[in-house]
Amino acid sequence: MLVRSIRLSALTVAAFFATASAHALTLPTSALVANSVQAFTQDNLDSFTTVNLVVEPRGTTYVDKAAPAGSETPVAFGFPITKIVIGATLSIQSGTASGAALYFNRLNDDTGARLGLTLANFTINYLSKQVLADTTPKGGITVKQMPLYNFTTNAPLALKYKFPLTIVLHEQLGSLKLTTQAKQALIQALELPEVTQPALDFDFGTLTQDVNAQFRARPVNATPYVAK
Fold it and tell me: What's the pTM?
């Protein structure tokens, strides 16, 4: 395993430098220890509770930090990163978590209906500074890669080399603000009361990316998640 890890790391290093003369390079990362973690704010969790909304993991998404007392929604979710696209100047253009999803569901007290919205197959687009996701209202039609959040950078992407031949990438994005399209999707799919809609203007926390050129015990399934 150590030999395989060193070989993979060496290939990763070579791939990074090979992009200097290429237009773009796609690096599959489903076999690597590569994860993106979204941590909600307390304001988010409180607003979810107010409207009986619960966020649940789907596909390859996992709970990174459990729900606090009084909340049914976990504080943080993790999404395995399945590919990274690198540009000609060695800058990362995008990162994708294909197969990961979040399910927003809400009980409408007035009608007794259980409403839902699925966000899946997340992509961080560093060129537009947006997070994109396939967006599907319960029983509705999927909008592929709809702009979900605008973001700023809290901790810029840092590439570190560790002996022997190990590449580690780390960054944190913040000020996750729902786009106009995302707000409308949530309002319509979850039938959010008008009085609660200002909560959609809250900061939706942080996204922290860590990529380590080491093998997972088992590669994650990178097949795009399809909402049911």
Answer: 0.87
